[in-house]
Amino acid sequence: MARLGRPTAQIVLTDVEHEVLARWARRPKSAQALALRCRIVLAAADGATNQEIAARLGCHATTVGKWRNRFAEHRLDGLHDEPRPGKPRTVTDADVELVLVKTLEEQPANATHWSTYSMAAATGMSQSAVSRIWRAFALKPHLTEDFKLSPDPQFIDKVRDVVALYVNPPDAAVVMCVDEKTQVQALDRTAPILPLLPGVAERRTHDYKRNGTTNLYAALNVASGHVITSMTARHRAVEFIRFLKLIDAEVPDHLGVHVVLDNVSTHKTPAVQRWLIAHPRFTFHFTPTYSSWMNLVERWFAELTTKSLRRGTHRSVRELVASIRTWAANWNDDPKPFVWHKTADEILDSLAAYCQRINDLGH
Fold it and tell me: What CATH superfamily classification does 155-196+205-353 receive?
């Protein structure tokens, strides 16, 4: 008796197709739908009927026939899902352009910057649509970044001078990064701190009592990470010279001393100049104006602030001074030098690119 309906597609696999189908069928990361289709084709290539394959794999015979025919027509490419049209777009290219133009070129009447809600009200779109557009184009109107460019006419020369000390220090000399952390406050909370508990963060009052200040002088040995510190009640050239004498006493006499420091006025007084003349092994290297980031001791100050001062409580200046001395002593027990990675050319190229972006935006 003749068989009714469309003829069953006959599947004949090449060695490569058989190997690929078998690998896809057993690979743990394959989608289960793709693995089932591979098993259907492999079974069809073995000569099984659609009904036999459906019974063996637990699917409908119509499904078996669909993927048998798809493979017969398109081979391996036919086993992948075809793209579906999906829901039509509700946000057009014109809508996207409108949001971008208003975000970048306009300002709301009652605020300094747009929010998703104010932009949605201004454009007639939904807040979620505005949010998606901003995310797609990495726009964050609520955020600002500060920058400061150095007006120092010797900026390039100073950058090259300081970086050279870091990456290629001179022989028979030490490089010391020196700076002051002025007006360090002895702060105490107005109520006792509540300790850390499982599921509960440490709690403290938002207000505090001021119990005086001190000024911290620090000199970081770039090579070893060792730090020399001194604390004073005042911040003048007299105290700075006293700190230079402390450095002079701690550095062996046969070594030169190259000091990296900023442009504060107490570093350039006539008294300091006379002291330098009397101590010729000391050489000052000034960072460019507004470029304290080039002084590595600032990185040590950041460690001190983060790990001790910010969450510390001190009922007097004496307690604060003792706390800083203890922290510095612990640091010097296992000092960790900060390694400078950027060359002077890399710094200058990066700055030039940033200035170019600012200049382009200005137009």
Answer: Ribonuclease H-like superfamily/Ribonuclease H (3.30.420.10)
